[in-house]
Amino acid sequence: MGMFSFDTMVVVLGLLACFIMANHVEVGQSSPVERLVGGGARDRDSHVRKLQEFKLNFFQREPTVSLSSSSSPSPSPTPSLPGRRGSGVFPVTAYGADPTGKTDSTDAILEAISDAVSGDGDGFLMEGIRNLGGVRISLEGGIYMISRPIKLPVAGRGNMLISGGTLKASDNFTTDGYLIDLSFSSSPNLDYNYEFITLRDLMLDCNFKGGGIRTIDALRTTIDNCYIAHFATTGILVQGGHETYIRNSFLGQHITAGGDPSERNFTGTAIDLQGNDNAVTDVVIFSAAIGITISGQANMITGVHCYNKAYGFGGTGIHLKVPGITQTRIVNSYFDYTGIVAEDPVQLHVSDCFFLGDAFIVLKSLRGVLNGINIVNNMFSGSNKGIDIVQLDQTNEEFKEIGHVVVDKNNVNGMNLKATVAKGITQVNGTSWTVDFNGILLFPRRIRFVQHALLLTDASNSFPNTVLRNISNNQVVIESDTIVEGSVSVSVDQSPSMSS
Ligand SMILES: *[C@@H]1O[C@H](CO)[C@@H](O)[C@H](O)[C@H]1NC(C)=O
Ligand SMILES: *[C@@H]1O[C@H](CO)[C@@H](O)[C@H](O)[C@H]1NC(C)=O
Ligand SMILES: *[C@@H]1O[C@H](CO)[C@@H](O)[C@H](O)[C@H]1NC(C)=O
Ligand SMILES: *[C@@H]1O[C@H](CO)[C@@H](O)[C@H](O)[C@H]1NC(C)=O
């Protein structure tokens, strides 16, 4: 039943794709004119020439002519190649791609891309990156089966869009490959392979064979409104380069809406950032062993909802593998039964996040370094199992080099509040009293700063001297020279380092 309706849907989508394509031809043909008007830099003769060319193209087309390319598995209904005639739009069906997803469209799509990147473009972006002017590879709302990664045949190209359809890995897709692979094996003279490539409105079904998207040494890449599912390895891998912006997208190994009976078996990583200055914004990760792995600096995570695999089943929401130089900001995100693990973090900011289902943050020691941490203004909700909101994992090594760590102003329901700043008040009747902060303080044996004040029941004649006797073991011991009756307020802070 389910299979039947899916097939039916595919056929309907396929038919739709044909209509869209038919429309698309006109849109594609009109774009050189638009570009001329918009560009304004061309002379009048060329304007007229292009218009004539456009008219010629428009009336020339006959539905019987097929593509000459031997690599195309099916005859194309489109006679001329819109891309080859000067339009910047390259509809893949014009190259023989099969929008029903039944036959292999790899060669056709690669050919469309090859044409798209072969134009002269308009000067350069970064040195050595030819500006393609915004060429568009259109998937025309179709579903295409591919058996090899979609790659550019050359490096040094920029200002290009691939959008508007589904790519699906075939059963023989290379298991270590990525459906869209913005990498190039050898570009010796270039700092970056590609610049300003946009991947938008795509569904990538990896069919449990490989990964979704990979970028290597690409600059200013946008991945927008993509749905990436069934990856065996990684949904999106970013290596080197800068500024890959992943936004407004959905990633999951299995298509589920939570509480999946197979959740325990989820594997793979939804997003792996092995580079600097990337941003993941407004992204949902609905299944994967690890939501986001980060091993570069200055990455920004905001508006991410991780419910990929519960911590209880061995999952992690965000894993920060940047010991000693973390420089990561995680804000305004939602950790749903899965948390954050940060290895030897130095400069990590986590704020305005919601942790649900006993989710928590682990600061994991590799070499015992922990510095520049802000975990502030978050909400934690749990089920009264006594789970600490922030935990230290010191199984490898105790944290020895602890710098400025601020865990404060978090609110908690059904979990144990942990903080580096705490206040206590206790009743006093005697000359010595102790306030124990072990319940709340994050670090054992590490109070760096204490303030206290006495409120006497009868203060008329009394002016006692007090002294701070002991702060070891997170217990503050205060003594007075006379018997004091009243209460004492104590505030402690673990964050200042000794010298500051
Ligand atoms: C992979 O499978 C497709 C059809 O599913 C076929 O067209 C293609 O030749 C196969 N490729 C290899 C390398 O076996
Ligand atoms: C998880 O995987 C194991 C073995 O890999 C299998 O026996 C088990 O049935 C799977 N569980 C679910 C719920 O799919
Ligand atoms: C304080 O201690 C004294 C002597 O131990 C006792 O007499 C007094 O009632 C105590 N005051 C309060 C408020 O408990
Ligand atoms: C502080 O208290 C601990 C026990 O909590 C004790 O071992 C230590 O000797 C005390 N230090 C001083 C200076 O009294």
* Uncertain residue ranges: 1-52, 54-80
Distance separating the two termini: 69 Å
**Could you say which small molecules are bound to this protein?**
2-acetamido-2-deoxy-beta-D-glucopyranose
Note the beta-strand portion. 35-45%
User: Major β-sheet, in short?
Assistant: 28 strands, parallel
Question: Rg from C-alpha positions?
Answer: 30 Å
Secondary-structure-derived class: mainly beta
How would you portray this structure in words?
Helices cover 13% and strands 44% of the residues. It has 500 residues and is mainly β. β31 (466-470) and β32 (475-493) form a beta hairpin. Bound molecules: 2-acetamido-2-deoxy-beta-D-glucopyranose (4 copies). Residues 470, 472-473, 475 line the site of one 2-acetamido-2-deoxy-beta-D-glucopyranose.
